[in-house]
TrEMBL record:
Residues 433-452, 710-731 are annotated as: Disordered. It comes from Scophthalmus maximus (Turbot). Pfam families: Anoctamin (PF04547). This is Anoctamin. Residues 95-666 form the Anoctamin transmembrane domain. Signal peptide: none annotated. One of its GO terms (molecular function) is intracellularly calcium-gated chloride channel activity. GO terms for cellular component: plasma membrane.
Length: 731
């Protein structure tokens, strides 16, 4: 068409194909084979041309041709992109044949990750059930709910807030125990071991796939491509040497400044939500309704968490574009370098955005609030927010569950389903408008009456944007599952449920919603594995600090074994609350009106000396004892988890035994074949001759061998006649 979208059929000459095959490290046969031209009949489900594959028999190196006409798409519809087969394994070999190794490895990794989420999901559910069945026997919860203790707590804000009874947070204390009990500590240690097992299991699975998909020589023989990016070459041509050096320094400073700026934006958003909660607590506490005042803490917490979730979702979309802009400022030389820097920046910004609200609640909220009579204020008039008497763990649990579930549900239903459909609808409407404007003469009218070709239908599909967004979503989820699992044991179960649906949702998207991507050969999942290792190691530290400083586990143990009279938890609530004389309130901070009369002392959550002590309101001996126990537990937990993780990694070999045996057999057969082939010309011209050692083969003959054969031959010449297994296959 002269106007609108047109399609051009291109012919690629054989030299161009050969050059691209060389650049992509595509293997060729040892012997010459006759080229075969295949024409496949099209059908309604065949969206793309047929593919011709060459299969090599490892015994005789005979070449067979297998013509794969795209019944592939039909099989992918039935066996993969179908919610009725959610209980079955993915056809990863079929995915690899149709989409290429890069996408095949992604779905293989996602399948392994989802499968290994089953044990922690079951155990986390058991931990949750343990909390349900033992909550009635938990002494601190019973003491919190006991109205007879008549414990009066200090106001939550200045002036407008009233005194309140500790028993009013009874339900919060009971709910907190469901996730803050002794079993949670064992579950956190188990998750550290699970992370190590997951990484080792994936390495073994990846080695098997590399062997099955013939990717071993891609790792051993490839020379890293140093092709410069066009943007980089253009910049080099435009600038002189001095200007180039200055621009590099300028770009580095700009990039560093930009990174710092956007980190500041993330923490500013978290601080803004915290200020919102502080202000709303004071405003809603003015409500004269007693029932509204009783639920003001939960109302403020819930609305603040929802606001945090919305901020996370909005900033995540913004940070994706910002990461591309920052990477382009750095002007990387090669495409590989560009991709790695882009992935790292995207992960850094998006992870900071997703985890910053959770880190605030876990490690900062209530730590710098001060005490009655000496509170810390923001903007002069608003007190820093405090944790509830049962601790901040329950709020951390709610925050984690809301962000994790909300993020997954909204991303799955809106960003991955609704938005692509809207984009497709918009492109279709724009195309129809263009055709109407173009249909002015008779020739165009004839063109309009032609039936719509398959390439027209394919063009309306969503363009493929790479597997980076898919990896990013799952890696952030892995962070939710591992970093703060001590506060929310049900996180693996929710992740498992999401991934079972996510696999089929992504399958349907790849098969029906996006254009077929170009096949990309790669030997592994790349930098994502390093990110997974970093998250796994960092999760040990975060869980240790969550158990020590956010939960009540360590203070309870200190009380039971150091301060309890009878070795039980009786009296723990009284022990964990400090006294404050209401006459010591600064002017204007005491409650203006109160429904609780006769209050001379109020209580607050801290370990401080009472007002009648010589050093009133200073940290007590119990505070320093608890702090020492917390730090000791962090060191013990971290070293124990790290040791067990390293032990698991050492005990599990990277290569399965069956694969090692298979590699040995293949090396032996390859050597026998080469020796037999070398003896044939000598036997014809000089008669029978004894076998030659492998290192005596002509140098030119060895150099022009198939890469995999050359790799095996090189290894066999290093040792005895019987070749050893590859070095990376055994410890």
């Amino acid at each position: 068409q002269s106007n609108g979208i047109g399609f051009i059929r291109l012919h690629i000459p054989w030299p161009i194909l050969s050059r691209e095959a060389e650049l992509q490290k595509i293997k060729v046969a040892v012997k010459k084979v006759r080229r075969l031209i295949v024409i496949c009949a099209s059908s309604s489900l065949i969206l793309f041309p047929c593919a011709v594959y060459f299969i090599t028999n490892s015994y005789y190196l005979e070449i067979f041709t297998l013509i794969v006409c795209l019944g592939f798409l039909q099989l992918l519809h039935e066996e993969w992109a179908n919610y009725g087969v959610m209980h079955k394994y993915q056809p990863v070999d079929l995915i690899r044949k149709y989409f290429g190794e890069q996408i095949g490895l992604y779905f293989a990794w996602l399948g392994v990750y989802t499968q290994l989420l089953i044990p922690p999901s079951v155990l986390g559910f058991i931990v949750f059930l343990y909390g349900i069945f033992t909550v009635d026997t938990n002494v601190p919860s019973q003491e919190t709910c006991n109205d007879n203790l008549n414990i009066t707590m200090c106001p939550l804000c200045d002036g407008v807030c009233d005194y309140w009874r500790l028993s009013s947070v009874c339900s919060l204390a009971r709910t907190s125990y469901l996730f803050d009990n002794g079993a949670t500590v064992l579950f956190a240690i188990f998750m550290s071991l699970w992370a190590a097992c997951f990484l080792e299991h994936w390495k073994r699975r990846q080695m098997c796939l590399k062997h099955t998909w013939d990717l071993t020589s891609l790792e051993d023989e490839e020379v890293l491509s140093e092709e410069l990016r066009p943007e980089y070459e253009e910049t080099l041509q435009e600038k002189k040497d001095k200007l180039k050096a200055k621009s590099k320094k300028k770009v580095s400073y700009r990039s560093l400044f930009s990174d710092t700026t956007f980190i500041f934006v993330t923490f500013s958003a978290v601080f803004g939500v915290a200020v919102y909660r502080i202000c709303m607590l004071s405003v809603w506490s003015m409500n004269p309704d007693p029932e509204a005042k009783a639920s003001v803490r939960m109302t403020v917490t819930t609305t603040g968490i929802i606001l945090n979730m919305l901020v996370v979702l909005v900033l995540e979309e913004v940070y994706g574009a910002i990461a591309v802009w920052l990477t382009e400022l750095e002007l990387p030389k090669t495409k590989e370098e560009f991709e790695e820097r882009l992935i790292f920046k995207s992960f850094f910004l998006k992870s900071m955005n997703a985890f910053a609200p959770i880190f605030y609640v876990a490690f900062f909220k209530g730590r710098f609030a001060g005490r009655p009579g000496d509170y810390v204020y923001v903007f002069g008039d608003y007190r820093m927010e405090e944790c509830a008497p049962p601790g901040c763990l329950i709020e951390l649990c709610i925050q984690l569950s809301m962000i994790m579930l909300g993020k997954q549900l909204i991303q799955n239903n809106v960003f991955e389903v609704l938005i692509p459909k809207l984009k497709k609808m918009y492109r279709t409407i724009q195309e129809q408008k263009g055709k109407k404007r173009a249909a002015e003469d008779e020739e165009n009218e004839i063109e309009e009456r032609r039936p719509k070709q398959q390439f027209d239908k394919d063009f309306t599909l969503e363009p493929f944007e790479g597997v980076t967004p898919e990896y990013m979503e799952m890696i952030i989820q892995y962070g939710f599952v591992s970093l703060f699992v001590a506060s929310f044991p049900l996180a693996p179960a929710f992740a498992l449920l999401n991934n079972v649906i996510e696999i089929r949702l992504d399958a349907a998207k790849f098969v029906t919603e996006i254009r077929r991507p170009d096949a990309v050969r790669c030997k592994d999942i790349g930098i994502w594995y390093n990110i997974l290792c970093g998250i796994s190691k960092f999760s040990v530290i975060t869980n240790a600090f969550v158990i020590s400083f956010t939960s009540e586990f360590v203070p309870r143990m200190v009380y039971q074994y150091m301060y309890s009279v009878n070795g039980t938890m009786n009296g723990y609530t009284e022990h964990s609350l400090s006294y404050f004389n209401v006459s010591n309130f600064p002017p204007g901070t005491a409650p203006n009106t109160t429904l609780i009369s006769g209050v001379s002392m109020c209580r607050y959550k801290d370990y401080r000396d009472p007002p009648w002590a010589p050093d009133a309101y200073t940290f007590s001996k119990q505070y320093w004892s608890v702090l020492a126990a917390k730090l000791a537990f962090v060191i013990f937990f971290q070293n124990l988890a790290m040791f067990l993780s390293m032990l698991v990694a050492w005990m599990i070999p990277d290569v399965p035994r069956s694969l090692r045996e298979q590699l040995k057999k293949e090396n032996m057969m390859l050597m026998e074949f080469l020796l037999n082939q070398d003896q044939e010309p000598f036997a014809k011209s000089h008669g029978p001759r004894r076998s030659l050692p492998s290192h005596s083969l002509p140098r030119t003959r060895r150099w022009h061998l198939h890469p995999h054969i050359r790799h095996s031959l090189r290894r066999s010449t290093r040792g005895p006649r019987s070749p050893e297994p590859p070095v990376n296959c055994s410890r």
